[in-house]
């Protein structure tokens, strides 16, 4: 079976339905590897990607995937991944305050490159540190549609882009 789906920010596969966490159509990629027990408060949490890669520079040929899933870190900190300390940052990562805009732009361009013509890119963003509208303004494409879930102080949005 061909690998036609890319999860570029696998993390602990928390967005995946339980029965799809080992789907053989998916390449699970992440720049991190975290073994079980590495996060004291979450002893079963781990990050075990099929491919260890940075979403800004993927080791795949252009137009490889029909579907790309992008759930980047939503926290922005002065030190980015080098200075993560809280449980949320340890689990989900962090973007660097000085470069988060260009990092997201580079990521989107790279994900668009590996997406086949006619393919779909889904992106999730939570406005914990940076507003959803500011992130959308950075991107070179406009989503077709999306959804949101609003809590008291934050809003998470999913956007769907078609190439």
Q: How many beta strands in the DSSP annotation?
A: 9
Helix content: 10-25%
Terminal Cα span: 23 Å
Query: What is the name of the CATH superfamily?
Result: Vaccinia Virus protein VP39
Oligomer: single chain
Order of helices and strands: EEEEEHEHEHEE
User: Can you name the CATH architecture?
Assistant: 3-Layer(aba) Sandwich
Beta-strand fraction estimate:
25-35%
SSE layout and pairing:
Layout: E1 5-7, E2 26-30, E3 51-52, E4 65-70, E5 76-77, H1 87-92, E6 95-96, H2 100-114, E7 115-126, H3 132-138, E8 145-150, E9 155-162
Parallel strand pairs: 1-2, 1-4, 2-3, 4-7, 5-6
Antiparallel strand pairs: 7-9, 8-9
What features would you highlight for this structure?
single chain, 163 residues, alpha/beta, Rossmann fold, 7-stranded mixed β-sheet, two-stranded parallel sheet, 9 strands, globular
What does this protein look like?
This protein is α/β, with parallel strands linked by helices and 163 residues long. The chain has a single domain (5-162), classed as 3-Layer(aba) Sandwich (Rossmann fold). It is built from 3 helices and 9 strands, in the order βββββαβαβαββ. The chain has helices spanning 87-92, 100-114, 132-138; strands at 5-7, 26-30, 51-52, 65-70, 76-77, 95-96, 115-126, 145-150, 155-162. The strands form 2 sheets. Strands 3-2-1-4-7-9-8 form a 7-stranded mixed β-sheet. The chain has a two-stranded parallel ribbon with strand order 5-6. The longest helix has 15 residues, at 100-114. The protein is globular, with a radius of gyration of 15 Å. The chain starts with a strand and ends with a strand.
């Amino acid at each position: 079976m061909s690998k036609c789906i890319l999860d570029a920010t696998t993390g602990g596969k928390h967005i995946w339905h339980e029965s799809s966490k080992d789907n053989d159509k998916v390449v699970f990629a992440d720049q991190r590897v975290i073994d079980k027990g590495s996060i004291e408060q979450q002893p079963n949490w781990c990050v075990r990607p099929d491919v260890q890669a940075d979403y800004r520079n993927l080791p795949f040929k252009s137009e490889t995937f029909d579907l790309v899933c992008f759930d980047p870190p939503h926290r922005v900190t002065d030190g980015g991944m080098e200075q993560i300390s809280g449980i949320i940052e340890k689990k989900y990562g962090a973007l660097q305050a000085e470069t988060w805009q260009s990092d997201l732009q580079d990521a989107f361009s790279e994900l668009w490159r590996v997406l086949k013509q006619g393919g779909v890119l889904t992106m999730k963003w939570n406005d914990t540190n940076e507003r959803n509208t500011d992130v959308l303004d950075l991107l070179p494409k406009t989503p077709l549609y999306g959804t949101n879930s609003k809590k008291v102080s934050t809003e998470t949005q999913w956007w769907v882009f078609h190439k």
